[in-house]
Design a protein that fits this description.
The chain is α/β, with parallel strands linked by helices and about 300 residues long. About 45% of the residues lie in helices and about 10% in strands. The protein has 13 helices and eight strands. Strands 5-2-1-6-7-8 form a six-stranded mixed sheet, sandwiched between helices. Strands 3-4 form a two-stranded antiparallel sheet. Helix 2 packs parallel to helix 13, helix 7 crosses helix 8 and helix 7 packs across helix 11. The longest helix is centred in the first third of the chain and has 17 residues. It starts with a strand and ends with a helix.
Length: about 300
């Protein structure tokens, strides 16, 4: 089980009231909410391995070089020597280091790689996995990794993590008319304002799905632009032709990397905390109470 950790702690932050605080009055709603999410996921799915995948760089420079608008609207402050600062709620950002410390003390594998997003880590680990993989994320971008043959599916939270949409190829085909790799092409053509991806003007989701159904993939669609006998409308041909520069670079931006240099780590789900004393200290300092107890009880089963 691969967790898109930031996606989950953002959901926890907005789903748990800020009145959930540490003894010193600091909000810990995202921390406790994430611990409850993990406890429920372990209880319901009993994974052998569990990896909390992190955004070491939420807006990698190599993606921005290709498409400058990539996530530009979410930049709080540009940084010359490292990742730009992401605009996140003032009461969430101090909770992220606490989440990291608690996961480390628990012994839950936490993996982030400089220059890459959590999505890229997830794509790399999913590609390497020998057995079935469940990816837990509230980010539809990861639908591109769905692969029935390899047992890779996305569990998309609908209400907390107790109600999950199980996204496999049948669901993707019914909802979007594409398979996993086809979803990346669909997203590229359609665009995604939340990620600052412009898409091809005039090509919406339904048109993109029809084009992919007719021509197979992005390369097939662009080949059709150069084929006067291909079944494109004049306006589609014109829009796609004018978008060649975008289409040439967008695949590298939209598709998750599968070759991230992930360090060696132990993904096994712990049955008890790696650092019991450290965890006890964190629990007392941050008032983690029942959320941590529930997770520890679930891990111990």
């Amino acid at each position: 089980m691969l967790l898109d950790t930031a996606s989950l702690y953002f959901r926890a932050y907005f789903g748990v009231p800020e009145s959930v605080k540490a003894p010193d009055g600091t909000p810990v709603n995202a921390v406790r909410g994430l611990l409850d999410f993990i406890a429920r996921l372990v209880q319901d799915h009993r994974p052998d391995d569990l990896v909390a995948c992190m955004d070491a760089d939420w807006r990698p420079h190599w993606r921005v070089e290709l498409i400058p608008s990539y996530k530009a609207h979410r930049v709080a402050e540009e940084t010359a020597s490292g990742p730009d600062e992401e605009e996140i709620p003032d009461t969430l950002s101090p909770q992220v280091p606490v989440i990291e410390e608690v996961l480390d003390a628990l012994g839950i594998a936490r993996v982030g790689v400089a220059g890459y997003e959590a999505d890229d880590v997830i794509g790399t680990l999913a590609g390497r996995a020998a057995g079935p993989v469940d990816i837990v994320t509230g980010d539809r971008d990861l639908y591109q990794l769905v692969d029935d043959a390899r047992g890779v599916r996305v569990l998309y939270p609908l209400k907390g993590v107790g109600t999950l949409q199980v996204t496999d190829e049948a669901w993707l085909r019914e909802r979007y008319g594409v398979d996993g790799p086809g979803y990346a092409d669909l997203a590229l053509l359609r665009g995604d304002p939340s990620d600052g991806l412009p898409g091809v003007p005039g090509i919406g989701e339904k048109t993109a799905a029809k084009l992919l159904d007719s021509f197979g993939d992005l390369a097939g669609i662009m080949a059709a632009v150069d084929d006067p006998s291909a079944g494109l409308t004049p306006s589609q041909r014109k829009r796609l032709d004018e978008a060649r520069d975008y289409v040439a670079v967008a695949p590298k931006v939209v598709r998750v990397a599968g070759d991230v240099p992930v360090p060696d780590f132990d993904p096994a789900l712990p049955v008890g905390p790696r650092d019991p004393a450290g965890l006890e200290e964190l629990a007392a300092r941050w008032g983690l109470g029942g959320s941590l107890e529930r997770l520890l009880s679930t891990l111990h089963r």
